Amino acid sequence: MPRHPLTRTKEGWLLSVHIQPRADRDEVVGLHGDAVKIRLRAPPVEGKANDALVTFLACLLGVSRRNLAICSGQAARRKTVRLPSVAADILARALRLPEPPPTEARTGDRP
Questions:
Q1: What angle do CA 24, 93, 88 make, to 5 degrees?
Q2: Which residue from 37, 42, 55, 90 has the least number of CB within 10 angstroms?
Q3: How far apart are CA 92 and CA 111, in angstroms?
Q4: Per residue of the chain (111 residues), what is the pLDDT tens digit?
């Protein structure tokens, strides 16, 4: 069974995403292995897709862009995004996850 795409940390959440740039529209598609697949209209050049991802997630979750950060995968389709503390059920609904994430913080994880 694949890992859940959301991991709880002391500061909030880590989200594993798989990005499909140059899509027809910005949308959450569903799961892609152990990541949430997100389609973005932005091209993968000069950080445009990364900026679009942060903006899209901020709007989707109703938080400020400055509360989100791409922790790894800046030049890859697979990325890890740091999210602020948001209720697990809200995250699950917004990201179209079949089940809420575990709510216990994993020790030793760093965003």
A1: 130
A2: 90
A3: 20
A4: 568 899 999 999 999 999 999 999 999 999 999 999 999 999 999 999 999 999 999 999 999 999 999 999 999 999 999 999 988 888 989 999 887 777 665 555 444
